[in-house]
Amino acid sequence: MPSSDAPLTGGCACGAVRFEVAAPFDTAGYCHCKRCQRRSGALWALSASVAGEHFAVTEGRDAVRTWEPPDGFSKSFCGVCGGHVYAGDPDGPTVIVRLGAVDGDPEIRPQWHSWVESAPAWEPLPDDGLPRYEQRRPA
Fold first, then answer.
1. DSSP string over the chain
2. Successive 10-residue mean pLDDT values, the chain, 139 residues
3. Which end of the chain is more exposed for a tag (fewer CB within 10 A), N or C?
4. Exposure pattern of 57-90 as b/e (b: 16+ CB <10 Å)?
5. Residue 125: CA atoms inside 13 Å, Cβ hemisphere, count?
6. Nearest partner of 50 among 27, 73, 31, judged by Cα
7. pTM of the complete model
8. Closest CA to 117 of 39, 29, 33
9. Angstrom distance (rounded) from CA 107 to CA 125
């Protein structure tokens, strides 16, 4: 499990932005909203949340670009390669880490699907037994 003694590391595709997670993730899941589809170019985004105090950008803070949508968490990515790394404010209460950006095993597995009403009808969701929420997952 990630800890302050053995943090989980990660970064963008080109390596300009690097980060550490120093505590276990609280939850993880798939988001099927149109925003995640268009942001990632995939049919869903797989992410996990951790308290902001346990997340740090360790390299390339100047390369981080952030999009502030009118609602929801801010979306941060590398301004060099465009690789998505996290959502939310690292100085805030929660950071949503893009699990495709981590270097090793995040030691959490997906626990839910959210915004399934936005999933494209032409590609069925996997029959994985996870809870499904038509919109936002309840807190």
1. ---SSS-EEEE-SSSSSEEEE-S--SEEEEE--HHHHHHHSSS-EEEEEEEGGGEEEEE-GGGEEEE--SSS--EEEETTT--EEEEE-TTSSEEEEEGGGBSS--S-----EE-GGGS-TTSPPP-----B-SSSPP-
2. 90 97 96 88 93 96 93 91 94 94 96 94 92 90
3. C
4. beebeebbeeeeeeeebebbbbbbeebbbbbbeb
5. 21
6. 27
7. 0.89
8. 33
9. 23
Query: Which amino acid is residue 55, in one-letter code?
Result: F
Type of residue found at 92: G
Cβ 55 vs Cβ 17: under 8 Å? no
